[in-house]
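Hi F.,

I've been meaning to write this up properly since the lab meeting, where we talked about keeping a consistent format for the predictions we share between groups. The idea is simple: the sequence comes first, exactly as it goes in, then the structure tokens exactly as they come out, then a line or two of notes. No screenshots and no reformatting. I'm using this chain as the first example so we have something concrete to point to.
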Amino acid sequence: MPDTSPLAVCVGEGLVSLVPATAAPLEDNRTFHRSLAGAEWNTAIALASAGIRSAVVSRVGDDGFGRFLTAELRRLEVDASAVEVDALAPTGLYVKELSTGPDGSIDGTMHYYRTDSAGAGLSPATLTAPAASALLAEAALVHTSGITPALSASARAAQDALFADRTEGRMRSFDVNWRSVLWRGREDEGRRVLTGYARGADVVFCTRPDAAAVFGTDDPDRLRALLPEPRFLLVTHPLGAVAFDGEERQQSDALDVPVVESIGAGDAFAAGFLAGVLTGLSLSGSLARAHRIATRALSSTRDHID
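Output, unedited:
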């Protein structure tokens, strides 16, 4: 029998992450471990780990890195049928530089090599291809982030098309994910664009630093006043989160667990909350699930949970 449980579709670029074996400057590292990365892909993987059917709509290059990424999705039980293969453009990647913080935790800095990548070639045509169209028609939830519209004009047009589609019963989830380097020289435009997506979404995730950078305040209540449109608004920071469902407000502390490195934890947090919403949990229950899944991303230098 076909699986009729809710389907979550995540749209965005997948990347290969090269993670050094030791916390040291890149010039001192000889060994790097290959891993999957990309905000929306991380979220899809965490959703699958939470028992939610998930799929990715994206593009990769016709190269070894692209084949690795799609194989990883399948291994982690994420539908990769709508990942297009570009015969000309390469798969994007980034190199992570690790350093040890004063408390012994590992801090990560990303160095991106994604200009003119296959993922940057996302476009409205990507969404209307047969495999992607079929997934989107079934989706109970579509998740995107503020990274995609910064990649290229065509990727922004694809995201515009997703938000213009008001299919009844489908939630639109948006993680602000402000990347100043991608908006360099057009920061004001980026803020306007991301604000528009936030106001058009049903669920919005935003860290406090991103809230300050994009919306001019990191105060959750002031941010809620600025963004009354989304049903759910979540404002996160390392010590916890404030979540809104309409006028309901919940505040929760992060779980006290050892932190290896924090990159990717926000994507796992978003997946946990969305899994809670899709399975009918309350606001507090969804928030608790978000924190539990986020802890799994904090325990390694990979961007995604495994």
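Notes:
The longest strand covers residues 53-61.
The domain at 7-297 is CATH 3.40.1190.20 (UDP-N-acetylmuramoyl-L-alanine:D-glutamate ligase).

If this format works for you, I'll send the rest the same way.

G.
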